[in-house]
Request: fold
Amino acid sequence: MKIGSGEHTYEWVENWAKVPDSSATRLGWSHHGIVASKTGDMITYHQEDGTVLRFSAEGELKSTWKGWFEDAHGITLVEEDGIEYLWIADNGRKRLSKYDYEYPEGTPEAPIHGQVVKTTLQGEEVVSLSTPPLPIYRDADYMPTWVAVNEERNGGNGDIWVADGYGQHHVHRYDKRGNFLLSINGLEGNAGAFNTPHAIFFDFRKGNPELYIADRSNGRVQVYDAEGNFIRVFGEDFMTSPSGFATHGTLMVVAELKARLLLLDGEDRLVTGLGGDPEVADTEGWPNDLDETGKPIRPKSLASGKFNSPHGMAVDADGNIYIAEWLVGGRHIKLAK
Reply:
């Protein structure tokens, strides 16, 4: 089926990625990122069994490798000297079926251990960033959700920015060697403190890099320059739950967890929405259904052409959009341009 209109028309391709069927596939709660390589392959994460998956643009599984992290919640692809790498933000815990989908609680003996790692596309660790050396982390969890890099190939300085979206609601800056530099929390400008800075993204459409921060629980986006200075805030009049970003040409695609994609122009103005289902997020148990005991189960009705919970998102060189939704059993959708 087709969604959108005019030049923003897409073919909805349901369950595009051919994830191998297993109980882990069916029972795992999808909560991960997805990126497009320069070859057109898509790289994402398994619903439950801790494996990084690489698919062709047609959805055929090409390769896998086993991760050493709880979840590849945010995946960012970068290129250095012609070689691609992955930055993976692991928030340190995952809703697993064996725990009835409750988040495991940290203890003094086994605290929540969020981490940020850089790997090759084959799964070899290159760099691991340390937890920011701030007082807020002495007695509180560090739960990073996304990474953005001011890439040198785009004229940037290589700085690495990390969103602690599920922990202390800060965004941290490291230099390209991994040395901690500074943190921001939303109080630098006039918009106010971040509340779930879920995803971050460097936008180069205007020439100078701008850092977009999905201030999700505040229903808005805050924009900073590459030095950490506040520039502007937008979206409070038309956004509900911005969760991720991608760009293609002059357009920016924003995933909203509450069931839609937004297309924005270069001035942050809404062009159109795609696949919106505004009522679904108000249903009991969303993004899942609940069984007779109140345990989450995969939704019985997932409508083609309507999103449930867009989480990870990528756009390839041809403008096709790939989405991994946040629900038991996962759902990978391709919007073919």
User: Anything to note?
Assistant: The mean pLDDT is 95.
